[in-house]
Amino acid sequence: MKKLKITALLFTFILLFSGFWSGNSNADKKQARIKQSKKTLALLYKHAPEAKKLLAKSYGYATFSSAGVNLIFVSAEGGTGMAHNNKTGKNIYMNMASAGVGLGLGVKDFRIVFLFANKKIFDNFVNKGWEANAQADAAAKASEHGGAVNASVTVAPGMRIYKLTKNGLALQATIQGTKYWKDSDLN
């Protein structure tokens, strides 16, 4: 059982992070993140139209594309994204990763959108980027087209998070810490 867990974790990290070592130039990687962000926002607006007004009024936002695997007692996620300052128009390119323990089984491919009400919360996220939470969720594909949406406020007043599942199938109850950090190669 222990070998299975270790093998599964190793496979997961190789699968999740293999895109970080691609041969694309930094300019190509930045453009890919911008395109990814636009697709994520389009998905958000499709399933939560009120978010468009909230985003326009926010100090800034961040979008992430992430994949995660839950294997019985171990979970792991990894992804890429960017934070955008609505006041200056500047993009900050970021990464994310997490690992946790708890009951779960499945694979999730999801998008996350953070909305920040003010400069202090935005800067804190970009510079410290740490979220730890106890989470219990059931994400399932909504019809053939996916698009299940869970909206919640977390960590601090002034920060709203939308979690969009494109085609996730996961049942989990994990204590999970997620780290968001600046991509040193792209900033």
UniProtKB/TrEMBL annotation:
It comes from the Bacteria. Keywords: Lipoprotein, Signal. Residues 1-27 form the signal peptide. This is Putative lipoprotein. It comes from Sulfurimonas autotrophica (strain ATCC BAA-671 / DSM 16294 / JCM 11897 / OK10). The lineage of its organism: Bacteria, Pseudomonadati, Campylobacterota, Epsilonproteobacteria, Campylobacterales.
